[in-house]
Write a structure and sequence with these properties.
There is one protein chain. This protein has five helices and four strands. With 150 residues, it is an alpha+beta fold. The chain has one domain. The strands form two sheets. Strands 1-4 form a two-stranded parallel ribbon. Strands 2-3 form a two-stranded antiparallel ribbon. It is globular, with a radius of gyration of 17 Å.
Length: 150
């Protein structure tokens, strides 16, 4: 393949997430879970067989509040960490499935090591944000940091 057949993305956290999606991973509502927001839960059940990224994001994010002004970011925050802004520790309601037919050839490029600013942190510092907000798709932050607490 020629290089013109590839999509290029950066290697910071956003680029890594985009690469995960371009690799064919799709987020679905995990029907084995219950979202604590009854309105969102009902909406998620309406199209449980369709990836979240292929649904009407405006409809799903309607009425949600969170730490961002971006309604899609608030939607994904509440799907990955339901009610975390209110101090709750509910499990995610997303399940990631890989669809090999949806893979898009791409390259992840950057000047430094993948992860961007994470490499500039002091050795004792685990995160510049609350730990769970640093998760990447398909990676549980608590599993990565197990045993690293003082």
């Amino acid at each position: 393949r020629s290089i013109s057949n590839y999509l290029f993305t950066g290697n910071g956290p956003s680029g890594i997430c985009l690469s995960y999606l371009l690799s064919g991973y799709k987020p679905y509502f995990d029907t084995a879970t219950v979202h604590p927001n009854p309105i969102l839960y009902r909406k998620l059940q309406e199209a449980k067989h369709i990836p979240i990224t292929e649904q009407a994001m405006e409809y799903l994010s309607e009425g949600l509040e969170g730490r961002s002004r971006n309604p899609v970011a608030v939607l994904f925050d509440t799907l990955l960490h339901p009610n975390a802004d209110f101090g709750y520790d509910f499990p995610p309601v997303l399940k990631w499935r890989k669809d090999k037919h949806q893979q898009i050839p791409h390259l992840v490029l950057g000047k430094g090591t993948p992860g961007g600013a994470w490499h500039a942190m002091e050795g004792s510092m685990l995160t510049v944000s609350l730990g769970i907000w640093m998760e990447l798709p398909g990676v549980n932050y608590r599993d990565l940091t197990n045993g690293l607490r003082r």
